[in-house]
């Protein structure tokens, strides 16, 4: 059997580069609660990402839950059904009712032209997702939020390092959440971060992620345990040293896919966004009706050859039992998202993916298209 090719793989710097960090943690005996590496990673990420206030978390789901708490969001929140389920779970854990709106057929992000029709007197916020690292229509969303007095929290789990018109996408909205899970382009094994606009809000977030503690005897509210530990933070600092190599490796894989698959009938490649940088976090192709076989047939063929492509995002969040009873979950309300969820297939992309293994993936896709193998 061919070796397994995962859909993604964390970049792992040489172990001998990580050991000095571990030695310092062992010697200091400080393993959590805002140690040296935690503070250093926050500062370094602010500089790297071009933001002023960032709070590290043990994972992005807890960051989303805490963001909603910090913003005191209640009632209904407009969001997308086309995302990882944690986006909507964070609303559920806060007792907030998600209202699903359809997605744009090109960017696959929340369709800003459909948001206003979903606003009710109970609507308090919008929770869009920069899907696959492609920026949402942030200008349109901002205009709608300002007009109706709504808060905006961006799920930017895929959007590490992405810029729009020269500005970090993390500057838009009231807050943004990043994921540093092992599947992401920048990772701390597990982890995440919450980006906010001012120092006062950051202090509140830092209290909430530490059980609500302000000091040894003062608790200001029902916080949660969302702190990032020193080992995660140290690994993040090391990852930052290799970001150029990581970005170049992903761009190389993206370029080879585009060159080999650009003329395949019925196969839509990921869009190249205007006025925005790409971080190549995913490579989502769409298998349309003009392709000889279905998306699932291509998925099965890849799996048979030990290629772990993923159907991100299928099923839609709105189709899971917890949410499918909501009026906004009706398929008639989400025709674009419903169609795309049956078309999209994320092909493997990560720096360590070799040309030989990538050729194997490409040849399987071409064979399902009824085409001859490409020239390496």
Textual characterization of the structure:
By secondary structure, the chain is of the alpha/beta class. It folds into two domains: 15-101 and 108-241, Aspartate Aminotransferase, domain 2 (3-Layer(aba) Sandwich); 243-309 and 347-368, Aspartate Aminotransferase, domain 1. Helices cover 35% and strands 14% of the residues. It has a seven-stranded mixed β-sheet, sandwiched between helices. A three-stranded antiparallel β-sheet has the order 12-13-14, with helices on one face. A two-stranded antiparallel sheet has the order 6-7. The longest helix is centred in the C-terminal third of the chain and has 19 residues, at 243-261. One of its GO terms (molecular function) is transaminase activity. Pfam families: DegT_DnrJ_EryC1 (PF01041). Keywords: Aminotransferase, Pyridoxal phosphate, Transferase.
Annotate the secondary structure layout:
Layout: H1 15-28, H2 36-49, E1 53-57, H3 60-70, E2 76-79, H4 86-93, E3 97-100, E4 123-127, H5 138-148, E5 151-155, E6 163-164, E7 167-168, E8 175-179, E9 192-196, H6 199-208, E10 213-215, E11 218-219, H7 230-241, H8 243-261, E12 267-268, E13 284-287, H9 295-304, H10 335-341, E14 344-346, H11 355-368
């Amino acid at each position: 059997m061919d070796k397994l090719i995962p859909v993604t793989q964390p970049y792992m710097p040489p172990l001998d580069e990580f050991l000095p960090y571990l030695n310092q943690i062992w010697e200091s005996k400080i393993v959590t609660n805002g140690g040296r590496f935690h503070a250093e990673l926050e500062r370094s990420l602010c500089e790297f990402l071009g933001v002023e206030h960032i709070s590290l978390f043990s994972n992005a789901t807890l960051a989303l839950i805490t963001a909603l708490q910090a913003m005191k969001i209640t009632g209904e929140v407009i969001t997308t059904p086309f995302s990882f389920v944690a986006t909507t779970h964070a609303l559920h854990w806060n007792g907030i009712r998600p209202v699903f709106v359809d997605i744009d057929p090109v960017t696959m992000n929340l369709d800003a032209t459909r948001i206003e029709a979903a606003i009710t007197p109970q609507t308090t916020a919008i929770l869009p997702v920069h899907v696959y690292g492609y920026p949402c229509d942030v200008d349109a969303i901002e205009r709608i939020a300002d007009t109706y007095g709504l808060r905006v929290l961006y799920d930017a789990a895929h959007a590490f390092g992405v810029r729009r018109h020269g500005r970090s996408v993390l500057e838009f909205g009231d807050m943004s959440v990043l994921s540093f899970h092992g599947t992401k382009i920048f990772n701390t094994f597990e982890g995440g971060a919450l980006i906010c606009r001012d120092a006062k809000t950051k202090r509140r977030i830092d209290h909430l992620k530490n059980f609500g503690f302000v000091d040894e005897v003062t608790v200001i509210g029902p916080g949660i345990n969302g702190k990032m530990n020193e080992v995660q933070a140290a690994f993040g600092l090391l990852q930052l040293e290799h970001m150029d190599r990581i970005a170049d490796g992903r761009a190389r894989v993206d370029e080879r896919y585009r060159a080999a698959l650009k003329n395949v009938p019925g196969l839509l490649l990921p869009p190249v966004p205007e006025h925005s940088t790409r971080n190549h976090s995913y490579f989502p192709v769409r298998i349309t009706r003009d392709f000889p076989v279905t998306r699932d047939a291509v998925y099965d063929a890849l799996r048979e050859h030990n290629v772990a492509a993923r159907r991100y995002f299928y099923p839609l969040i709105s189709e899971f039992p917890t949410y499918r009873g909501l009026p906004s979950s009706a398929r008639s309300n989400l025709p674009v998202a419903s169609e795309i969820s049956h078309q999209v297939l994320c092909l493997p992309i990560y720096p360590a993916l070799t040309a030989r293994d990538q050729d194997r993936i490409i040849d399987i896709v071409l064979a399902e298209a009824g085409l001859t193998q490409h020239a390496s």
